[in-house]
Amino acid sequence: MNEHALVFDCGNDPLLGILHAPSEPVDTGLIIIVAGGPQYRVGAHRQFVILSRQLAKKGIPVLRFDHRGTGDSGGEYRGFMDMSDDIRTAIDNLCTRFPNIKQVMLWGECESASAAAFYAPADHRVSGVFMVNPWIRTEAGQAKTYLKHYYWNRLKDPEFWKKIRSGKFSLARSVKSWLQLLSNARQDKTTAAKAQQEDDLSALPLPERLTKSLQCFGGKIYILTSGFDYIAQEFNDFIASSPLWKNSDLNTRIVFNEMTDADHTFSRPEWRRQLFTETEQWLLDHTTERSQPQAEPASF
Hints:
Blueprint (H helix, E strand, L loop, with lengths): L1 E9 L2 E9 L6 E6 L13 H11 L4 E4 L18 H14 L5 E7 L1 H9 L6 E7 L6 H17 L2 H8 L5 H15 L5 H7 L8 H11 L3 E7 L3 H12 L1 H4 L3 H4 E6 L9 H17 L15
Parallel strand pairs: 3-4, 3-5, 5-6, 6-7, 7-8
Antiparallel strand pairs: 1-2, 2-4
Helix pairs in contact: 3-8, 4-6, 4-9
């Protein structure tokens, strides 16, 4: 296995990536997409580095890269809503360096999971998407999540009642916050109807855009969520209640898994190991054959 830094252009902007090149690559390559937030190609807890090395040892070529405006890449920061050109350029480079690759999988966590889903239907080279805690946050969705999960858990927390007895709890402030969340949660009742009629997916609210993007994608989809994560809970609550999602075939096409005890970034070693194992097994399950050994990519 070899690791090489490489620089490639996205329009007029240079992107920096790290290529993990196996000595005997399989026919499936992986693009790790950096989250839209303040993160770069290393990932939380060096997650992307460790995952890439593990997969490369199994023969899977991996490219992890900084999209425009993040890490060491140039250009203006655009965020996960406008990352298609960055992803396409990364796939172009991976396929150029490994011409025997027959299919490319995308791997994303949080915002980059959604970015992968938005992009996948537009590129025939993409055969699968591995999504971790997809980001579909809206004001209404966040409010519903907090009402359902945060406040209910607070009522069951002994520390909450101790705080009330000690006089450190502000009832007026909490009621005001609860009423505001309730108001926010009622704001999106018309979104599902609008989503059924909207042709421009980019104009849809995030939950509906993600749903329709996945409907348009005919490849493999794996969605892994964390049990102790409000972002994941917002996603799970949406797919459990959305008429748009329920009336689709997505529940029959997607492999779902939840790590009950894990947090959003899989901060404990045992959670990361499970995340990596799930990713590796899914990729190898969809790899059909080993390619012939390639010449080592040139150093950059």
